[in-house]
Specification:
8 helices
Length: 188
């Protein structure tokens, strides 16, 4: 196999994994579906570049024997807890990474200075709004969580406040999505 095809195949395989993961969450049902939503939310906090809003898709077909509002609330709670747990894991990785000079030096020398950009953005939000800034950043639908989570994880030290901010931001994002969808639907 030509070496040039390896990145293309790897990229295609990742896209397939991402698509399959999203589809599994979209079609989740029952208690196992809630577990899947929790795991998905955990993973998107630190590794999967996928939208967190997708967890709301199976609400109407979840088959939990609850009213739609209770099912949606349960999905939001499970997703928020999953993302908070994943964020604490990312927080731990960030704490370890800032102790590792060679990793930071390698990333700083890379073509794209991700660390500098992330630190600059995170420092601005942290200085201006603290943990509320993290929660607000995570409340924006469609904005990738991973960058904000890792940027804050390198700067901050309080696991509990970090988890609380990521939980609040995750729940906030899903509530903004629900309200926005309801508003658009009402206009139609």
């Amino acid at each position: 196999m030509p070496v040039e095809l390896v990145p293309v195949l790897a990229s295609g395989m990742l896209e397939g994994v991402y698509a399959a993961t999203e589809e599994a969450v979209r079609t989740a049902t029952g208690p196992i579906g809630l577990v899947l939503i929790g795991i998905y939310s955990f993973l998107i906090a630190f590794v999967l570049p996928l939208p967190s809003e997708i967890v709301l898709a199976p609400a109407e077909s979840m088959r939990l024997g609850l009213p739609l509002s209770a099912t949606t609330g349960l999905i939001v709670l499970v997703s928020g807890l999953g993302k908070a747990a994943g964020s604490v894991f990312a927080f731990h990785i960030g704490q370890e990474a800032k102790q590792s000079g060679p990793i930071i030096r390698f990333v700083r020398r890379s073509r794209f200075d991700i660390v500098e950009w992330s630190e600059k953005t995170a420092v601005q939000l942290a200085q201006e709004y603290g943990y509320i800034g993290l929660a607000l950043a995570l409340s924006v639908p469609g904005f990738p969580d991973t960058i904000s989570i890792y940027a804050f994880s390198v700067l901050e030290k309080d696991y509990v406040r970090f988890a609380a901010a990521t939980f609040a931001g995750s729940v906030g994002r899903l509530l903004v999505t629900i309200v926005g969808f309801a508003s658009v639907t009402a206009l139609l």
